[in-house]
Amino acid sequence: MSTSVLHNIRVTLDMIKWEHSFLTLPFGLTGAVIAANGIPAWRTLLWICVAMVAARSAAMAFNRLVDADIDALNPRTKIRAIPAGLLTRAFVFWFTVATALIFFFAAWMLNPLSFYLSPVALVIICGYSFTKRFTRWAHLFLGLAMGIAPAAAWIAVRGTIDPRILIVTGAVMFWGAGFDILYGCWDYDYDPAAGVHSVPRFFGIAGALRMARVFHVVALAFFAWMLFSFSLGWLAVAGVIVTALALTYEHSLVKANDLSRLNAAFFTTNGFISMLILFTVAADRLLLGHRGL
Questions:
Q1: Of 82, 140, 170, 244, whose Cβ has the fewest other Cβ atoms within 10 Å?
Q2: Taking Cα atoms as reference points, which of 281, 152, 288, 144 lies closest to residue 219?
Q3: How many angstroms separate the most distant Cα atoms in the chain?
Q4: Residue 274 maps to which CATH number?
């Protein structure tokens, strides 16, 4: 592999913020743990991780590709790889195709239903990129793209779907939509001129912060519903309680007239939350005994 290709891959991984896979991957693994009533087989875990990282990589690269012209006009995003001239559209296109194929292969290695539904999953997570062009509720579409991770992991483990896992999908959807609204506040001054639809554009920053709080309250309600639906014990209950405290802290960092601490709210706190839910649910299943589902 040539030095230029390796350089392009490194730039691409930075462009798609591959490390942010750890915002969603733990929720996918949470679905796998619930489905398996404990830790799934290592082979299954491996292919779940490959599938989720590949799917997110494909979706993020696709997003950067279709948003390149919009990014070029935004002072915050014009330094991204395509508008800055660090990568060609052709390279990003083929990276998207390659990671999508890896995703399909990983799904095929899991079970037939995972493979049959993999194109649907890819359409959902890539389709989000177009929603901000026509609806202020694009944040919910992003949340849905994240929220299908636990349902996909359930299918990967069991080869079937149970409607109860959609409760976890709902929790992740509103959690993700809430923090994406916070993130969207950065572009409040830019979105109207660019024709980008968002909650901050239509409700103002103060209104957007209130909407994000509402979404996170709804997410907590879904997490509480998850506890009862899957008969989770006190360790998982503690995880949800700490999640509520973490979300309260997150919102305390961001003010309508001060977005300087938004990075801490967006990345650090939400990364903690996703890992917290995974570890407490896994600990509950492993330490408190398996309960029938």
A1: 244
A2: 144
A3: 56
A4: 1.10.357.140
Name every residue whose Cβ is closer than 8 Å to that of residue 234 and which is 6 or more positions away in sequence.
284, 288
The reported pLDDT for the residue numbered 86 is: 84
pTM, to two decimals? 0.92
Q: What is the pLDDT of residue 2?
A: 57
Cβ-in-10-Å burial (0-12, 13-18, 19+) of 209 comes to buried
- Is residue 8 situated within a structural domain? no
| Phi/psi of residue 103, nearest 5 degrees | -60, -45
Name residues whose C-beta falls within 8 Å of residue 240's C-beta, 6 or more positions apart in sequence. Answer: 220, 223, 224, 226, 227, 277, 280
Domain tally, the chain? 1
For residue 260, how far is the Cα from the chain centroid? 23
| 4 part of a folded domain | no
**Quick one: which of 2, 118, 117, 16 has its CA closest to 63?**
16
Helix (H, G, I), strand (E, B) or coil at 133: coil
Phi, psi (deg, nearest 5) at residue 255: -120, 155
Does any domain span residue 39? yes
Spell out a b/e string for 189-204, using b for 16 or more CB atoms within 10 Å of the CB, else e.
Answer: ebbeebebbbbbbeee
Report the C-alpha gap between 142 and 39 in whole angstroms: 28
Q: Does residue 140 lie within any of the structural domains?
A: yes
- What distance in Å separates the CA atoms of residue 216 and residue 209, rounded to the nearest whole number? 11
* Distance in angstroms (rounded) separating the CA atoms of residues 32 and 108: 17
The sign one gets for the Cα dihedral 24, 212, 218, 249 is positive
End-to-end, the C-alpha distance of the chain in Å comes to: 48
Per residue in 226-283, pLDDT tens? 999 999 999 999 999 999 999 999 898 888 888 777 776 667 788 899 999 999 999 9
Which residues of the chain carry a pLDDT beneath 50? none
